[in-house]
Write a structure and sequence with these properties.
mainly beta
Length: 249
């Protein structure tokens, strides 16, 4: 991941944690009475909501054992900020556990830089990978005890992605400036967040990691496959995502 992108993610994470800690300290009662907003909200069997957010996706590459012997360098990934939007359906299991479906649209962009001796033009070394995911997660939410109008939680689950921008049906490949990826993949997700009970609704910011478990790379059409200066020598390419969602329920 590009250095500037790491700095952005670190900034958002630190700012998020700082705001939450500041709020938690304020939530501990200093007087006997505290106004409790929407006190029966978590007693509902079913409820719905929506979310908006930002994301940053990376790729993790695995290479053949002779890749570095051929004096090739790792593929450099420059991540760009993307956005997320979607709906939420929440089923209450008990006081501390909820099962959630969060279908959404995730848009991301990644630039791949290939440092190969045969690639002399800048346009050949750069490949833009734009991904538009229909993201279908099944999430288990584990919540702590409510503290006045605040409640922390952790998330874990699996998700299915359908990439509408994969180019998998395109007969062209990198020799025609077309980088192809698999149209579907399965991920596991982990995260944490905080419920804030406001006067009319519940607001829940959360941070989560999204990690693909399937190889997404489609090799170029050249024979043998190892001759491609873009996909040759690469055995596996998987997505790793970082998302901040702002949920309204």
């Amino acid at each position: 991941m590009h250095k500037n992108q790491h700095i952005k993610i670190l900034f958002f994470t630190v700012a998020f944690i700082f705001l939450v800690i500041n709020y938690v300290i304020a939530q501990y009662p200093t007087v006997r009475e505290k106004i409790i907003n929407i006190p029966t909200f978590d007693d509902r069997l079913l409820h719905y909501g929506y979310f908006v957010g930002i994301n940053s996706y990376d790729f993790k590459f695995s290479y053949e054992k002779d890749y570095y012997a051929d004096k090739f360098k790792d593929v450099e990934v420059q991540s760009k900020s993307g956005f997320n939007v979607g709906l939420i359906g929440d089923l209450r299991v008990n006081k501390y556990i909820n099962i959630r479906i969060e279908p959404g649209l995730y848009y991301s962009k990644r630039d791949l830089i290939f440092e190969r001796p045969v690639l002399t033009d800048e346009s050949d070394r750069l490949r833009e990978v734009k991904s538009t995911y229909i993201h279908l997660p099944l999430i288990v939410k584990f919540s702590a005890e409510r503290i006045n109008n605040f409640r922390p939680f952790v998330l874990a689950g699996v998700s299915k992605d359908f990439n509408l921008s994969s180019n998998h049906k395109n007969i062209d490949d990198n020799y025609s400036n077309v980088f192809r990826t698999e149209p579907q993949n399965i991920n596991y997700e982990i995260g944490l967040g905080f419920d804030f009970y406001l006067f009319y609704f519940k607001f829940s910011p959360s941070i989560r990691g999204i990690f693909s478990m399937q190889n997404e790379l489609i090799p170029d059409n050249v024979i043998p496959k190892s001759d491609s200066p873009w996909t040759g020598g690469i055995t596996k390419m998987v997505s790793r995502g970082f998302a901040i969602n702002f949920t309204f329920e």
